[in-house]
Amino acid sequence: MSGWLRVVGLGPGPERWITPEVSEVLAAASDIVGYHVYVSRLVFAEDQRIHRSDNGDELSRAVHALELTANGGKVVVVSGGDPGVFAMAAAVFEAMEHGPLDWRALDVAVLPGVTAMLAAAARLGAPLGNDFCAINLSDNLKPWAVIARRLSLAAQGDFVMALYNPASSARPAQVHDAFAILQAELPETTIVVFARAIGRTDEAVHVTTLGKADPSLADMRTLILVGCQTTRLLERANAGPWIYSPRRLEVDP
Ligand code: SAH
């Protein structure tokens, strides 16, 4: 029996943000592997085996998924958002790199999903309409000095920034350090958005500026967007402002 492995993302919000391709492989799977919070959002058939794990053991989850595939399983590894953005796809290839050579011949595919940055941008208007970057603020897998340097250089490069994993109960302070770095580089009028739980029933969007931003608004369900110098607000009477970054860059380089 030949197995297969599909690494998928469920999007950041409601089920309708899951792509049809991902729904198809979830229905066809014999084994579903994932962080219990993501897996618990899904409904399974009785004969499907569900392998729930805790946050943080991504590599052992990936090894397990490759073992199941090598044994003929039809395996789906589940992430939130897109599987390639700070998620399980890289863990699967890390496991493959250090695992038996046979694993490289397995039928493996990564299926794209909607990442939090794109869902948040769509809610706000078009903040990613000009050049942007994504930075993971967690220092679980890289030194804080690297993160600090990247924040500083992204600010100097006038990129719009999407800041993933800004804070958690284990790392409440670093988001304050991150804002101090940005405040040293950028004008206090720079637009900042705390986009929390986008697409969920408790979604909350807080639009502010770098000078007024309260970093303690960020938690592990928040994506922070920092505008570039041309990012602007279009106020409207009936809702929060539209936010967009013009395609044309009107500042001196
Ligand atoms: N693979 C995921 C990201 C995993 S990192 C993706 O592509 O979206 C987890 C971080 O993603 C969170 O700390 C938060 O910064 C962001 N995130 C995930 N879902 C979100 C949502 N619904 N609203 C806002 N941010 C979200």
Q: What labels describe this entry?
A:
about 250 residues, alpha/beta, Cobalt-precorrin-4 Transmethylase, domain 1, Methyltransferase, Cobalt-precorrin-4 Transmethylase, Domain 2, 2 domains, five-stranded mixed beta sheet, about 30% helix, about 25% strand, elongated, binds S-adenosyl-L-homocysteine
Topology:
Blueprint: E1 4-9, H1 20-28, E2 31-35, H2 36-39, E3 49-53, H3 58-70, E4 74-79, H4 88-98, E5 107-110, H5 116-124, E6 125-126, E7 132-136, H6 144-156, E8 160-164, H7 174-185, E9 191-196, E10 204-209, E11 222-226, E12 232-234, E13 242-244
Parallel strand pairs: 1-4, 1-5, 2-3, 2-4, 6-13, 7-8
Antiparallel strand pairs: 8-11, 9-10, 9-11, 12-13
This protein binds S-adenosyl-L-homocysteine.
Residues 9, 12-13, 79-82, 85-87, 115-116, 120, 164-165, 195-200, 220-223 line the site of S-adenosyl-L-homocysteine.
How would you describe this structure to a colleague?
By secondary structure, the chain is α/β, with parallel strands linked by helices. The chain has two domains: 4-114, Tetrapyrrole methylase, N-terminal domain (Cobalt-precorrin-4 Transmethylase, domain 1, 3-Layer(aba) Sandwich); 117-244, Methyltransferase, Cobalt-precorrin-4 Transmethylase, Domain 2 (2-Layer Sandwich). It is 28% helix and 24% strand. The protein has helices spanning 20-28, 36-39, 58-70, 88-98, 116-124, 144-156, 174-185, and strands spanning 4-9, 31-35, 49-53, 74-79, 107-110, 125-126, 132-136, 160-164, 191-196, 204-209, 222-226, 232-234, 242-244. A five-stranded parallel β-sheet has the order 3-2-4-1-5, sandwiched between helices. Strands 7-8-11-9-10 form a five-stranded mixed β-sheet, sandwiched between helices. Helix 3 packs across helix 4. It is elongated. The termini are far apart. 40% of the residues are buried. The structure holds S-adenosyl-L-homocysteine (SAH). S-adenosyl-L-homocysteine is lined by residues 9, 12-13, 79-82, 85-87, 115-116, 120, 164-165, 195-200, 220-223.
